[in-house]
Write a structure and sequence with these properties.
By secondary structure, the protein is mainly alpha-helical. 72% of the residues lie in helices and 0% in strands. The termini are far apart.
Length: 125
Amino acid sequence: MHRTTLLPENWWGVAAETAVGNAAGRDVVALRAENDQLRRALAGRAVIDQACGMVMVLAPCGRGAARNLLVDISRQCNAKLPDVAVAVVAAWEGDPLSRLMQRALRHALRQLYADNRGCDSPSAG
């Protein structure tokens, strides 16, 4: 039988604040901050993978091309890749993309199709 203990979300913050005066306490705070950062990165990666899968279905292409398409949109919109992925997933579920992201998506898709046909890309010149 498994026993589950529910703790408040920020329970470790209180304990770490009292221990910050010593080196071990500072290490605990640093490790917990790093753990939090890694959890956010992992959550971002999951949504990026989901968006890549959606792009692969909609624009028949491989995983690398789908990721490159999302990165291209991210650059054009000056947005972080996880934010673009969240918007793509939300669009799949019915929320419209912003006009800027729609334009970037059209441009990235044209580029993908041109590359797949063997045409030279405009940026390769």
